[in-house]
Amino acid sequence: MLPSIQNRRSVFPQFFTEQTVAKDIIQELLEAANMAPSHKKTEPWRFWVYTGAGREKLIQEVQDVYEGARAPEVRDPKVVPKFAKKIEQAPVVIAVFLHRDPAEGVPEWEEVAAVGCAVENLWISLDHYGLGGYWSSPGFLCGGYGQWPDAAMNERCLGLFYLGHYEMPDLPRPRGPLAEKVTWVEE
Ligand SMILES: Cc1cc2nc3c(=O)[nH]c(=O)nc-3n(C[C@H](O)[C@H](O)[C@H](O)COP(=O)(O)O)c2cc1C
Q1: Substitution candidate for ligand 1 out of 5, 137, 156, 161 with most atoms within 8 A of CB
Q2: pLDDT for the residue numbered 43
Q3: What average pLDDT does the segment 66-78 reach?
Q4: What CA–CA distance (Å, rounded) separates 95 from 90?
Q5: Which residue has the least CA distance to atom 9 on ligand 1?
Q6: Is the pLDDT assigned to residue 170 strictly greater than 90?
Q7: What is the pLDDT of residue 88?
Q8: Which of 86, 105, 114, 158 could form a disulfide linkage to 38, CB 3.0–4.6 angstroms apart?
Q9: Cα–Cα distance between 70 and 113 in angstroms, integer?
């Protein structure tokens, strides 16, 4: 197996160090994401990159989205502070968006899959730079089109990708048997 695939893992914000991530490295990661495949080359991935003081804006946006998604009587006062803490622990947070093809020339699932390919490209690139990260997809953030402040009406958030340098124990990542997931047809 390729080492970049073997070494890809979810690294959670509590394991990030305070070391900042150079902007040219973030740019390289995004270039890798941008090489993802997409049907009819719609290239539906969009990324909003929050670093430094920009993360305060993200916390505000998360709060706005949460309040837009949940009526006051069902809001949990612990939710926004929980996300604020994770955002503050991560030197870089990338909000991942699906930019739906305005012509809807391909089904939505194909564009969601293409965004997944883009995120995986970024994710498997992290190891090369000594970085770790993970994709967080809380339901309230991954709602409908136009729900995110300042996002276009054909854009929906597909989660937050947290990344940074890290110190974390090398935890096992078991997978179920491949044999249960593969059907060989040989004759
Ligand atoms: C589309 C997608 C959404 C995910 N959302 C979450 C999430 O909301 N919370 C979380 O803890 N992990 C999330 N993950 C990470 C998975 O939990 C993680 O990849 C899985 O446990 C396997 O661990 P590994 O990445 O270390 O191999 C998500 C992964 C994917 C691909």
Answers
A1: 137
A2: 98
A3: 95
A4: 13
A5: 136
A6: no
A7: 98
A8: 114
A9: 27
d(CA 169, CA 14): 12
**From CA 153, how far away is CA 37, in angstroms rounded?**
24
Instruction: Fill in the amino acid letter for 179.
Output: A
- Judged by DSSP in three states, 67 sits in helix
Strands (E), the chain: 45-51, 92-99, 131-136, 155-165
List the CATH code of the domain at 3-180.
Answer: 3.40.109.10
Q: Per-residue pLDDT tens for 12-50?
A: 999 999 999 999 999 999 999 999 999 999 999 999 999
Domain ranges of the chain: 3-180
Whether ligand 1 lies within 6 angstroms of the CB of 137 is answered as: yes
